[in-house]
Amino acid sequence: MPTFAFDPPPQAAVAIRGTSELFPARRVYCVGRNYAAHAVEMGHDPTREPPFFFMKTPDALLPDGGVFPYPPETSDVHHEIEMVAALHKGGRDVAEADALDLVFGYAVGLDFTRRDLQAEAKKLSRPWEVGKAFDHAAPCGAIARAAEIGHPTRGAVTLEVNGERRQTGDLDQLIWTLPEMIAGLSRLFELAPGDLIFTGTPSGVGPVKRGDRLEGRVEGVGALTVTVG
Fold first, then answer.
1. Angle, CA 114 vertex, CA 223 and CA 228 arms, to 5°
2. How far apart are CA 110 and CA 50, in angstroms?
3. Which CATH number belongs to the domain containing residue 55 in this structure?
4. Cys-Cys crosslink for 25: which of 12, 56, 156, 170, Cβ 3.0 to 4.6 Å?
5. Residue 6 covered by a domain
6. Does residue 2 lie within any of the structural domains?
7. Is residue 73 a part of any domain in this protein?
8. 200 pairs with which residues across the strands?
9. Which domain holds residue 201?
C-alpha cells in the first residue's frame, strides 16, 4: 500500500460554534465587488455585471482571536469584512432554488488584501494570488449552523479598527445573493463539502498597521476579532 514520502500537513479547519467539532475546509472561494458602494470606491461601475471569483488557500484561514502577521513585500494591506458561507454538500450546475440546501452554516471572515501588489497585478493583467492568497489572509470566526440561525439575507455587516468604525453595510445590499453565487460557482467548479464562500465586502476598506485590533460583526451570524502582529 502506498505511503506518503513525509507526513502530510494537518487538515485546515474552522471552529463550529457551540461544539468541539471542526469544519474541515476544502476550498476558499471569494466573490469580487459584490457591494455597489465598494465597487465605486475601487473605481468600478456598480451596475450588475456577472459575478467573478478568486480563491484563497485553506491554510490561509486564521481563527477568531488570532494574530495576523503583517505580510512581507507590501506596505498597503487592506481589511475587507465579509459574511462567509460554509458548505456541507456539493454538486455541479446547482439550481438557485436548491442552493441553500448545500449550506451548513455561516461565519464572519476577513479578506485581507495586499492592495499594492493586487493593483500592480491588475495593471499588468496578471493573476491576483500575490495580493489575495498569501499566508493567514483569510481569518474566519466560528461557524453558526444554519439549522440554528437560518439563512440570513439582511443584517448589519460592520468592522471597527481600534474601536473606530471603518466599514458598514448590510446583507440586503449584496449585488448577487448567496443562491446566485452558489449557482454561478457550480457552473465553473464542482462544489464539495468543506468549501467556504466569502460573499463580498461593503465599502470602507482601508489599510491596517501593526498593533491594530480589528473587530468585525455580521448581525445574526457572529463576530471575529483579529490583531495585526
1. 45
2. 23
3. 3.90.850.10
4. 12
5. no
6. no
7. yes
8. none
9. 13-228
The whole-angstrom separation of Cα 157 and Cα 83 is 8
Q: How far is CA 134 from the centre of its chain?
A: 13
Whether the CB-CB separation of 61 and 28 falls below 8 Å is answered with yes
Q: How many domains does one find in the chain? A: 1
> Which cell numbers in the block locate residue 115?
492592495
pLDDT in tens, the chain (229 residues): 889 999 999 999 999 999 999 999 999 999 988 886 655 555 556 666 777 899 999 999 999 999 999 999 999 999 999 999 999 999 999 999 999 999 999 999 999 999 999 999 999 999 999 999 999 999 999 999 999 999 999 999 999 999 999 999 999 999 999 999 999 999 999 999 999 999 999 999 999 999 999 999 999 999 999 999 9
Quick check: 186 and 94 in contact, CB under 8 A?
A: yes
Q: Is the dihedral of CA 190, 34, 63, 58 positive or negative?
A: positive
